[in-house]
Amino acid sequence: xxxxxxxxxxLLIYTTSAMAIxxxxxxxxxxxxxxxxxxKGVVINNRGELRLTRQTKSLLPEDQHFTAxxxxxxxxxxxxxxxxxxxxxxxxLKDGKLETLADLEERTILSLFVEADGKVLVGxxxxxxxxxxxxxxxAKPRTLFSQAGVEYVWSMIRVxxxxxxxxxxxxVIYQIDTQGAAAEYARLDGENVLSLIEGPDNTIYAGTGRDxxxxxxxxxxxxxxxxxxxxxxxxxALALDARGNLLAATGEDRESSGDGSxxxxxxxxxxxxxxxxxxxxxxxxxxxxxxxPPGGAKPIPHxxxxxxxxxxxxxxxxxxxxxxxxxxxxxxxxxxAAQETTEGNAVYRIxxxxxxxxxxxxxxxxxxxxxxxxxxxxxxxxx
Length: 383
Description:
The chain is mainly β.
C-alpha cells in the first residue's frame, strides 16, 4: 500500500510538470535568420533555404559592406584579385590579408586579368567601356583601351603576345598588342561577347549574349564558325575539359522583374553610369554586307522555328560534315513540354566534330565555370 501511494504521488508530480510545459514554435524563413545559428554541413542560400554542401570557409571578414563579387582573377603568386559591388573596388587577398588596389567609384567592374608581372587589368562598363591598368596598390589606374561604341568589357584572355577583349553591346572582339595598339580581331552576329577561351592551336571560342550563340574563330583567317545556338540567351562561361571538348554554361535570368517584364541577366550594372544592355535586337546585316561563314552556316533569323540541338563543324577541308540528332537533348517543341525541358540554365558539351550534348540543367543562373580534375565546377546565382 505504501508503494502504491508513492507511485501515485510521483505520477501526480510528473503530470503536473508536464501540464506546465507549453509547445513553442520557431519559424526561420530568411537567410539573415539562419545566419544567426551555426551551419554544419549545410549552406544557406539567398532564398532562406538550407542545402547540404561540402565544408566551406569564408575568406572575407563578416563586416563586409559589399553585396556581390562580380569578377575574380588569380595572380601568378597565388593571390586572388576580385572586384566588389556596389562600391566598385578592386581588392587582393593574399595570405589571409585584404589589400585595396583601387577604388573606381562609379565605374562598374565586369572583368579582371592579372599579367605575369602582377599588373592588374580591369574591364569596366559605363557610357564608355574601358580597360584600366593598376600598376601598383593605390596607384591611379591608367587607361589601356577605350574605343568608340564600346560600353562593356565582359572578359579578357591573353593569347601569345596579344590581349583579347570580349566587348558589347556590339559583338566585337578586340586585340591589343604589346605596344598597346588596339584593333578589331573578329566581329560576330548578335550582341555582347560575354565569354572567351583559347582552345588547341590558338583557336578562339566565344559566347554571346542576347542570342546565346557559340562561335569558333579561326586564328589565321579570324573568320567565325557558328557552333551552336543555345536555347538560353546568354553564354556566360566557357571551359575546356581534358579531352578537348568545349563546355558552355548559360546564364540567362528568367525571373520576372515584378512588372510583368523579364529582368535582365544577373550581372550588376551601375545605374549612375547610364549604360544598359539594349532591350531590342539590332537589325540583321543585309545580304552582301558580310560573307557567310565557311561550311554553309546561315544567318540566324529573328524568330527561328526551333533552336538546333546539334550542329556540324567544318572539316579541315572546309566541307561541312553531316549532322545527326543529339541523344542528350530533346528537340525543342511548343507547349508545356518545351517549357519543362528548357527551364533554368544548362551546361553544354561540344565535341571536336561539333556535336552538342546537354550534360546539366538546373534552376540557377550560372556566372562562372571551371574544370577541376574530372569535375565541372559552376558558380551560380539565385541558389
